[in-house]
Amino acid sequence: AAWVKLEGTVDKANKTLTVYSTHFSRYDTFGFRVGAQPAVITPLQLPNIHTYPNPWRTTDGVPVKFAADTANGDGAIAVDIKIYDIRGSLVAAVSNVVNRAGAGYPTEAAENNAVVLAPWNATNQAGRALASGVYLYYLTAKDLTNGTTVTHTGKLSILH
């Protein structure tokens, strides 16, 4: 478990502390500065997460790419993807860091009107090509500046 900073407000007259959260958890008030303005946080947003090409064919000559239409947040994005076969067995894991370029989405990762979050060569953990079939994936993306996360599940097809 890790401590996560939550922004809030202090009402000195009523002697209350208000913090907004999207989950139920354990809280503590350490390192709190009375009178300080809360930092503005841009929650990580990755609309329309998808893979392309889908279906992927060995003759495509390019890796499978996990992408989103845009990427909005405060900093670099750490992407972790777990790929499973239809029985639920883990067959591959992919990690990548997408560096930000200014206030918009990372221009160095822009391709095909999307932000490439991670490429994958359609091989298993031993480096062997996967068989034709449908595969499921679980993607977790974390903004390394503010800690906000996005998760997504999806499926992709491989054809030989």
List the helices and strands and how they pair.
Layout: E1 8-11, E2 16-19, E3 50-52, E4 56-57, E5 64-68, E6 77-84, E7 90-98, E8 110-111, E9 114-120, E10 133-143, E11 149-159
Parallel strand pairs: 4-11
Antiparallel strand pairs: 1-2, 3-5, 5-9, 6-7, 6-10, 8-9, 10-11
- Mean pLDDT, to the nearest integer, reads 83
- For the termini, the CA-CA separation is 43 Å
Task: Give the SSE string.
Answer: EEEEEEEEEEE
Which ranges are low-confidence, i.e. pLDDT below 50, for 5 or more consecutive residues?
101-108
Q: Helix proportion of residues, in percent? A: under 10%
Any overview of this molecule?
Strand 8 and strand 9 form a beta hairpin. The protein is 0% helix and 41% strand. It is elongated, with a radius of gyration of 20 Å. The chain starts with 7 loop residues before the first strand and ends with a strand. The strands form three sheets. It has a five-stranded mixed β-sheet with strand order 4-11-10-6-7, with no helix packed on it. It is mainly β and 160 residues long. About 5% of the residues have low confidence. The chain is built from no helices and eleven strands.
